[in-house]
Amino acid sequence: VAARDPLALDALLDPLHAADIADLLEQIAPNERRALLALWKGGVDGEILSELDESLREEVIEALSPGELALAVQDLETDDVVDLVEDLDAEGQAEVLAALPAADRIAVEKALAYPEYSAGRLMQSEVVRAPSHWTVGDAIDFLRSGITLPDQFYHVVLVDPRLKPVGYVTLGRILSSRRDARMRDISEDSFRTFHVEDEQGDVARAFEKYHLISAPVVDDDDRLVGVITIDDAMTVLDEEHEEDILRLAGVGEGALSDSVLDTIRGRLPWLVVNLGTAGLAAFVISRFEGTIQALVALAALMPIVASMGGNAGTQSLTVAVRALATRDLTRSNAWRVIRREAAVGLLNGLILALVLGGLTVLLFGSWALGGVIAAALVINLLAAALAGVFVPLLLERIGVDPALASGTFVTTVTDVVGFFSFLGLATVVLL
Amino acid sequence: VAARDPLALDALLDPLHAADIADLLEQIAPNERRALLALWKGGVDGEILSELDESLREEVIEALSPGELALAVQDLETDDVVDLVEDLDAEGQAEVLAALPAADRIAVEKALAYPEYSAGRLMQSEVVRAPSHWTVGDAIDFLRSGITLPDQFYHVVLVDPRLKPVGYVTLGRILSSRRDARMRDISEDSFRTFHVEDEQGDVARAFEKYHLISAPVVDDDDRLVGVITIDDAMTVLDEEHEEDILRLAGVGEGALSDSVLDTIRGRLPWLVVNLGTAGLAAFVISRFEGTIQALVALAALMPIVASMGGNAGTQSLTVAVRALATRDLTRSNAWRVIRREAAVGLLNGLILALVLGGLTVLLFGSWALGGVIAAALVINLLAAALAGVFVPLLLERIGVDPALASGTFVTTVTDVVGFFSFLGLATVVLL
Fold it and tell me: What are the backbone dihedrals phi and psi of residue A199, each rounded to the nearest 5 degrees, phi first?
């Protein structure tokens, strides 16, 4: 591809969608990427920039001259520019902002003043609005009058004289109604507005729950300041899912295009925490060295109890974290969920204890050893089920993201309870 | 709430959105739910049914009489009816289908003939289409002619005389163009159609990637048969994420409203698999019983090496599974990703080995023991990193969902490698 022929490159890349070009840039090796950009940077437009992964965006922006950058960003809607700019360093931000037309620059600066991850950052300031007393004819004439309209819009927001949104009309209803119909009479029944400081995850979940396509955003004075569209909500939801899944695994953030050092920075802290909790488990075992010395088979069997608990705990935990994220687990049903998990843990524990206890009796010929491992397994699976729900609920209560820290706590509980109950029971029963 | 007063209940529930009523039904206890349904079943409409969790839907549908059911479903679009019906047993399906008007029934039956999770199941058959030679005026007159239009639509699909889609026009463009403009001239540049048998996950990811709002679906003869809208794509994406996150944790499927028995059925198989792999690890340990007998401190330290490997493996694995799901990890960059993970594993291993080895020397006063645990940790973290990428890649290659089975394989590798390298090195070096 990068055979130093800009024209052939143009011919190849031009028919591609911006998202595909961004994917291409993410997948090729860093040196190929630099070569490609050097040849083809004139072709990089704003859409490609906004599709790029954050870690690459800075690299690509630095490769562009201010003039190329200005050309690239001027066609974007304000929400895309905000998204592009918010993760850049101060210098990069200033460079992009300077490249924008004045009106857009003000809108972007205003959006950047809202808290990170707020509806204000997510919205675009380009809104199609109309006074609520207009007729369909007024609206159509207004739309045809040659004003600049957003690229994509699906509703006309009706506002009162103080710019407060009072309803919205789908374009489909406008098109299928007579010119003399009043906009107010054909507006949708259900109508939701968001506040600029609403958390973007909540906004995205409301889009999904209520099947919204776009929704107006108001400021403290209830005035219409922008609109959020479903494609942005979908992206937010996707990012939140990604965060949840990566955090559950103890991977801070992580894109495949991150460098080795960034990746280590994201993962090492959790491994260090795990080192501490594994040390705790090792300490519990070391208290029973006498018991192990007397019956060394215990050393081989004890990881089974701990590992089963860890697995069962992760199961409860994942369901609980996911349910907290989707707001399916709330205070009103928490006790019912805890009771259910406890029942599941106890029953799974009893079934598996029968199997494991039976196998142990067969292999080691000792009913006592089989009984000890079976009892320890039941205790640990019950502990795992309870920890799997209690830990995320407690973390949520004290304001920590349950996806981030639960895993370590839960496996600490199951390791400690597993080793302690097995070796403790063995000490009492077998020695 | 359920104080046997249907009128008060009406007053309470009527202003709520269908999604909120469905949430309420999911969160209250089963006996409260039955009482509420008995009192208020006349109020259950199709929208509430389609918002309900699958496990509850059947229960609610059974509580309704055929007449109530007919009333409930007749206002739904065909894609919602398909979604409602596909998980019911044959009897329930027949009941709902019988309640539909003939034209809708045929459309639903046709959709049900497409494979599960295909675009054909996801689409609605209600499409607004227009011949490509029409002008904006023709289209507006057509839309105003009083034909039944879908509740929500965002594009008019242009078709040729053989019903093949050739482009689409956003309603915003129609509204802002003059009556004599040709539809063909104002159609969107980028235009994607899906085939009825496309996999719905691929469709949903294409919606997200290309920021689509709606897209036409064609059959084998390239004829327009329906349209998929973004809200359905968003739901699919959400379901796929949920599946990924739950499968990674070894929880088959799982909703909080599932019964204890259903939950056990989902989780027990993975615990049984884990019992097998934990048994393998126990077997490895049992081969070194002589070594442990000679130096019982090894029993306390060995779970640290295995647990660190398990954590690091889960980290690589989660990133890889997620990247496979989003198509960020492909054959073309697989080797680069593997090399990166190996580098991360090696470096994390070296850093943590220094810490753990140092602590061991301090606590046990043995340089040899510190060296053994440090070396085992490096080996296991490298193995974890490689297994974390290789296992999901291999599973994907042979057509198994990597989210479903990777975790067990990876922790088996890290347990076996961890115990074997630590105890093996200890046997060679320390005895």
Answer: -75, 135
